Amino acid sequence: MKSFRKPRLDAFAAAVEARLKPLQTAPQGKTAQQRRADAAAFDPIMSRELGIEPIDVATEEHTLPVPGHPDVRLRVYWPTTERPAATTEGPGLPVLVYFFGGGFEIAGIDWVSWDARFRERAHDAGVIVVAGEYSHAPEVKFPAQPEQCWTVFEWAAEHARELGGDPERMALGGGSAGGNLATATALMNRDRANRPVRLLLLEVPLLDMTMRHMASQPGIPAFLFRKLAGTIVTQYLGKTTALRRNPYASPLLAPSLAGMPQTVIYTAELDALRGDGEAFARALGEAGVPVSCIRLIGQNHGSAGYQRHSATADHLHRDIVATLRTLHDQPVPYPTPGGAR
Asked: What are the chain's domains?
């Protein structure tokens, strides 16, 4: 009888990474600012190498004040090349407010790879995407970032009709650190305003800053991995360890998840954050929140971005688009399961 092989990276994803590796610089021993500069320089190189080209859709930018914190920038993406007219009543387009990932220290809405992704999802799903920026750590620390993201969400909800959207068809989403911020924003909404949010969409999210659900990455010694992960946490939260259990920093540790929106989570088999997403799915289910969690076998933290080079990445895009398209329909009224808390 054949034994199961040890988990390993999908051959298509591995081929992409082998192709990109010679074009990258090693991050060891560099400051956050140096890593950010290297990553920003690599993004257009990677995008050209993988043939990532932003499609033409209508866009608009805004900068919003955030009381007590730096201003925050956002970009609106419509699904067509023409901005639709404002809606006064009835169903408008669904609105997805999304936050990019990058360990809280790199990336942004101007990155070619993220900008292309926002355009494609808006176009393919027929939704308005509001992509929010947030300040980088370590120069700016928690709680500035969740407050900035909350401001973006509030603006999108308040201006949904003006944008041609529908405030009753709102969704929140994010990848990696952006998944953390999207979930924190959903918690803030539940606690502060309780605006209707139809969907929380999370891709390989970081949800527990105590790191108890993290697993070492293949090929990285456990002690070194813990050190690298600890650096990300300290840069974002500072040295006050109590903040690691703050629900807006570690949504997985919130005392209650009741009242959170229906959630779809994507995790990757070879991702150090897989445990965060899957533990969050279990916690949501126990709280009576409708939740689905899909694990992508043979994938790592970043391989979902290899569209047109990986069948899994292409399927993930189609799956996310199909999920976003459900925002056009009436929601399913799931009953609260017995024993939910």
From this structure: 30-328 (3.40.50.1820)
Q: Computed over its alpha carbons, how large is the radius of gyration of the chain? A: 19
pLDDT tens-digit series, residues 158-202: 999 999 999 999 999 999 999 999 999 999 999 999 999 999 999
pLDDT in tens, 50-77: 999 999 999 999 999 999 999 999 999 9
Phi and psi at residue 186, to the nearest 5°: -65, -40
Reply yes or no on whether 135 is catalytic: no
Angle between helices 311-325 and 11-20 (to 10 degrees): 110
Whole-model pTM over 0.90: yes
Q: Which of 301, 303, 310, 317 is catalytic?
A: 301
Catalytic status, residue 309 = no
Told to judge if 271 belongs to the known catalytic residues of this protein, a careful annotator would answer yes
- Using left for φ > 0, alpha for ψ between -120 and 50, and beta otherwise, residue 286 falls in alpha
Catalytic residue among 176, 250, 303, 310: 176
